[in-house]
Amino acid sequence: MIEPRTSPPTPLPRRGELSNFRSVASASPRRNARTSPEKCPPCADFYTRATVALLSAGEGPGVRFRRLLLLLLLTLPAAAQDRITQSINAGWQFRKADGTDYAHTTAVTGWGKVSVPHTWNATDVNDDEPGYYRGVGWYKKTLHIPANWQNRRVYLLFEGAGQEAEVYVNGQLAGRHAGGYTAFQFPVSKWLKFDKAATNEVVVKVDNSPNPALPPLSADFTFYGGLYRDVYLVAASPVHFDLDNYASSGLFVSTPAVSAEIAQVLTRGTLVNESASKRRLTVLTELTDRAGNVVAQQRSGLTLAAGEKREFRQTFAGLRRPHLWSPTDPYLYHVTATVREAGPASAPPLDAVSSPLGLRWFRFDAATGFYLNGQPLKLIGTNRHQDFPGLGNALPDALAERDLLLLKQMGGNFLRVSHYPQDPAVLAACDRLGILASVEIPVVNAITDSEAFFQNCRTMQTEMIRQGYNHPSVIIWAYMNEVLLRLPAGLTKDNEAGKAYLARVAALARELDALTRREDPTRYTMLVNHGAFDLYQQAGLLNISQLIGWNLYAGWYSGGFQGFPDFLDRHRRELPDKPLLVTEFGADADARLHSFQPLRFDKTTEYANRYHQFYLKAIQERPFVAGATVWNLAEFNSEGRQEAVPHINNKSLLTADRQPKDAYLFYQAHLLRTPFVRIGSRAWTLRAGLAAGPDSLYCNQPVEVYTNQPSAELLLNGKSLGTHPAEFGIARFTVPFSAGLNQLTARAGTAPADNVEVQFQLLPTKLDTEKLPFTELNVSLGDQRIFTDAKLNQVWLPEQAYAPGGWGYVGGHPYKLPGDRLPYGSDRNILGTEYDALYETQRVGLTQFRLDVPAGQYEVTLHFAELEAVPAAEQLAYNLAKPDAIAATAKSTRRFSVVLNGLPVLSDLGPENGLPPLEAVSFKFPVNVRKGQGITLDFSATADEAVLNGIQVKRVE
Ligand code: GCB
Ligand code: CA
Fold first, then answer.
1. Which of 185, 214, 237 is the last residue of a domain?
2. pLDDT value at 525 more than 70
C-alpha cells in the first residue's frame, strides 16, 4: 500500500469551483442561517491527508498511469475486520408476568420457547375481548461467550423493544431503555463469564404498560409489547469507534455540498481507547463506488491515552462528477472507516464501521414545492405502519423490505415512516430503492406536561436522528402528529388551563425543533397536524418547524371533497412562506364491500376510489403542495377501532396481506412511466347481480381499467367491448356479465395485456323461471352495498323492496346510527362474527320479507344483531376510548315475532330474549314450499319495532 503522504497530490477544487456548489445550504437562505454543530475537537496530534482517486477524462498518460496504479493498490483486499456482530434471535424463553421482580421471575418455571422477533400481542389484538395485554413480559437466554472474547468490549444491541426494557446479565442490571421504536445497546463485558465451561444468562424485562411519561400516550394503532426486532451481540476490540452514542454506528456521514460537478463528503466519529496503554492510531476512511472501487480515501492519525475518547472529522473536498442518488437512479457509494495501529497500512484492523452514501441535494420551496438535485420532484407515496396479520409488529426484515418494494412498484418516491421510527431495514430499503423518507417520533394526539415526558421526547428524537443520520433517503425529521387532537379532560382552547397546555405543547415543539436543527442541519424539520388550522395557529405551532404536514380527511370524516383544496389554498394564502405536505389522506376501503352508488363513509372500494381521484387531482394541480402520502400503504392493526372490520384500519392501498386495492392501481396509472394497464377490482373475482330483465341472461356492471395510456380496450371472453379514452388514468366500461366464468382482458398501447377471471352469480328478476333457475339469495338488509365473501363463495346483495314475482322487504326503514357520519347502519363491533359489516346494517320496522320462489325444499337463515345499545358508539374513529363500548347493555325494549309461511318460528325475540346487544345471532329453518306459495316471513312487534339484518335463502332440492 502506498502511504497517502507519497501519493499524487489531490486535485482539490479551486475556490471559484467551490463557490459554484449548488447545495441545500446555498439554495435555501433559511438553511444558511443554521450553524453547524460539527466542531473539530482541539487535537494537537491530529493530521489528515486526502486522496481523491476518481479517474477523469482528459488527463495526460502519466497522470492516468499513476492514478490507475493507486486505484489498483487501493482495491487490494483488506484483512478481516475485527468487530464481530451476530444476531442472537434464536433460543429465547418467554414468560408473561405482570408485577413481578427479577428475583421472583427468574426463579419460577413455566417459560415458553420463542425466537425473536416476538410480540405477546400477536393474537389478543384481534379477539372480541376489549383491550390487549399491556404489562410485563420477561425474556431470557443463555449465552456462550468464546473465551477469547475476554479482551473485547461486548455489547448487547436491541433494534427495538416495546415499550420499555431492562437488560440483566448474570443477574446484574446492564441498562434500561424507554421507548418502543428506537434501538439501544449496552456494554456487558464486565458481567460476562469468559470461562469456556461457563454459561451466561441474559434476562430482559419488557413492559408495554401505559406510562404517562412515555410517548405515545394514545393513538390509532396498537402499542405492541415484546422484543419485536432483531437482537445482536457485538464484540469489538478495546480500540473501537464509539459504541455508546445512542446506539448509532458511531460514524456520521454527511454531504455538505453536492452538485452535478463535485461533491463534498464529511465524516465524523469518535474513537475510543479502552485499552490499558496509550495508542498511536490511524483512521482510514474510504469511499467506494457501487462496484467496490475506492474513489477517495482519507487518513487521520491520532494518539489516544489509555481510556481516552476522541472525536475526529474528515472532509472529502472534491468528488468530481459524482454519480447522483435519485428515485430513478438510487446510486449508492459506500463509506468504510477502519482504525489501525499507526505505522504500516498493512497493520490488521482494530475496528471498522461502514455506511451507505448517497450524493444528492434537495430543498423545499413554499411556492413551488420540492427539488431534488436541482429538479422539481413532486413527492408522492404513502405512510406505513409496521405490523402484519398474525405477526403483530414482530416482522422479519424481509416483510418490511417487501412493503418498500410494493411502494416502489406503485411508482411512489416518498415514504412517511409513521408514526415512529421503524426497523433499520426500512430506511436501508429506501436508500436502495430510491424512496425519500420522513421519520418521526411517536408524540401523537397529546403530551404529558412533565419533565420526564419532555426528556423521553428529547432522547427519542436524538436516537432517531443519530441512528438514521447516514441514510441518504432521509430528508425530514418530524416530532409530533396531530398533537392537539385530544386536549386533556376539562381543557378547552379558551379556558386558562387549556391555554397553558397549548403553551406547553408549543414549548416542547420548539425544544424538539431546535434539538433537531442542532443535531442535523442537513434535513428539514416538520410538524404534522390535523385539519384544525385555527387551533394550531392559536397554539403557535405553525411557525416552529420548517415544513408543515397536514392530515386531511375532508369528504371522509366530515364534509365534502371540496374542503380539501379549500384547506390547501387557505394555507397558501395565510402561510405563504411555509412549505407544506399532505402527510395523510385516505378513506376506508373494505375489499369485501362494493357499491355502484358509493356514499361517504360506506367503506366501499368505489367510494375510496372517488376520494383518491379527487385528492390526487387537487394535489397535482397545486405546485405548492410539495408532497403527499396516502394513509396508509397497507391495512394495519388498531386494537380499539370498530368500523366494518374491528381492530383494523383499512384506509389503505393494499389489503393486510398486501393485495392491491383499486386505489393502488390508480396511483400506478399516474406514477409509472412504463406503459401500464390493469383491470380494476381485480380481487373482486366473485360477483353477483340481477339479470338485466326478465328475459336476459346477463347483468350489466361497471368495470374500471387503470392505464397511463391515452385509451384502453376491454374484451369479454375474447370479444371487444370497445376502446374507451382514459380520463385521469381510468377507462370506464359496462360489462354484460353472464352466469359462470367471465374472462376480461384489457389492452392499452404497448402495455402488457391484463387478464382477470370473474365468476358471476346471475340472479333471475322473476324467481319462478325455467331459464335461470333460482339457487340462492343472500341479502344484507338496511344496506346499499354488495358484500362478497370469497371464503364461503357467497355474495350478499343490497336490500330492495318486494315486487310481485321477485323478492324484497315490505315496510320499514334502514337503521342509522345517530350523527352525520354514517350514511346508514352502525360502526360498532359486533361480537361473535367476522361479518361485522353485514350485521352492522339492518332494516327496522319491516312487516314482511317475501320471495316468490318456485315449489321445492329450501333453507332460510335469518341474521340479527341488536344495534341499539348504550353507551352510544364513539363518534370519532380515532377517538380511542373504547372498552366500555363492548360491555354494551340494551337500550331498546324490543320484542318481536317472526312467522314463516304461517308457522310461528321466532317468538318474543328481543334483548331480553335471544338477542343480546351487539352480538351476531342467526337461525336456520328448513321449509317445504308448495307450488304458488313462495316464502313469506311476517314480522310483528309487541314492543318497539321488528328488525332484520340479513337473510339467506337456498334451494336444497
Ligand atoms: C389520522 C391519524 C392516524 C389515523 C388516521 C385515521 O389523522 O394521524 O394515526 O390512523 O387519521 O385513519 O383516522
Ligand atoms: Ca431488523
1. 237
2. yes
631, 501: one domain:
yes
For residue 880, what pLDDT is reported? 37
> Is the CB of 316 within 6 Å of ligand 1?
no
Q: Does residue 584 line the site of ligand 1, with CB under 6 A?
A: yes
| Residue 485 or residue 44, greater confidence | 485
Q: Which residues surround ligand 2, an ion (CB under 5 A)?
A: 230, 397, 423, 425
CATH code for position 689: 2.60.40.10
- Grid look-up 368500523 returns 643
pLDDT of residue 604: 98
Task: Give this prediction's pTM.
Answer: 0.90
Residue 482 CB less than 6 A away from ligand 1: yes
pLDDT confidence of residue 871: 61
**Cβ 849 vs Cβ 951: under 8 Å:** yes
378 and 266 assigned to the same domain: no
Residue 555 lies in a domain: yes
Pick from 831, 901, 913, 830: nearest CA to 860: 901
Examine the domain organization and report whether 46 and 166 are in the same domain. no
Q: How far is the CA of 161 from the centre of ligand 2 (A)?
A: 12
Do 124 and 231 lie in one domain? The reply is: yes
Write the residue with the smallest CA distance to atom 3 of ligand 1. Answer: 220
Same domain, 583 and 721: no
- What is the average per-residue pLDDT within 590-619? 98
Do 421 and 521 reside in the same domain of the chain?
Answer: yes
Atom of ligand 1 nearest to the CA of 481: 8
Amino acid at 498: G
Arithmetic mean of pLDDT, 393-407: 98
What are 611-666's pLDDT values in tens digits? 999 999 999 999 999 999 999 999 999 999 998 999 999 999 999 999 999 999 99
Tell whether 3 is covered by a domain. Answer: no
Interatomic CA distance for residues 614 and 589, integer angstroms: 16
Q: What share of the chain is helix, strand, coil (3-state, %, to 5)?
A: 15, 40, 45
320 assigned to some structural domain? yes
CA 908 to chain centre: 48
In Å, how far are 88, 200, 210, 420, 459 from 480, measured between CA atoms? 34, 41, 19, 10, 14
User: Distance between CA atoms of 657 and 195, rounded to whole angstroms?
Assistant: 48
**pLDDT grade, residue 99 (50/70/90)?**
low
Give the CATH number for residue 940: 2.60.120.430
Predicted local confidence at residue 69, as pLDDT: 43
Q: Please tell me the distance from the alpha carbon of residue 50 to that of residue 9, in angstroms, as a whole number.
A: 9
Asked whether residue 244 is assigned to any structural domain, the reply reads: no
Same structural domain, 758 and 861 = no
> Does residue 466 have its Cβ closer than 6 Å to ligand 1?
no
Question: Which of 444, 481, 551, 637, when mutated, tests ligand 1's pocket best, judged by the most ligand atoms within 8 Å of its CB?
Answer: 551
**Domain termination residue (choose one: 330, 357, 384):** 357
Predicted pLDDT at 386: 98
Bridge partners (DSSP) of residue 748 are: 751
Reply yes or no on whether the pLDDT at 33 is more than 70: no
Q: Are 923 and 862 in contact (CB under 8 A)?
A: yes
Which domain, by its residues, includes 717? 675-763
Nearest to 31 by CA among 551, 664, 449, 475: 475
| Residues 590 and 446 placed together within one structural domain of the fold | yes
- Using the mean position of ligand 2's atoms as its centre, give its distance from the Cα of residue 251 in Å: 20
**Is the Cβ–Cβ distance between 525 and 548 less than 8 Å?**
no
pLDDT tens string 528-547:
999 999 999 999 999 999 99
In whole angstroms, give the CA distance from residue 843 to residue 937. Answer: 14
Cα of 409 from ligand 1 centre, angstroms:
24
Looking at the structure of the chain, the number of domains it has is 6
Residue 631 Cβ < 6 Å to ligand 1: yes
Q: Single out the residue of 343, 361, 630, 638 nearest to residue 472, CA to CA.
A: 361
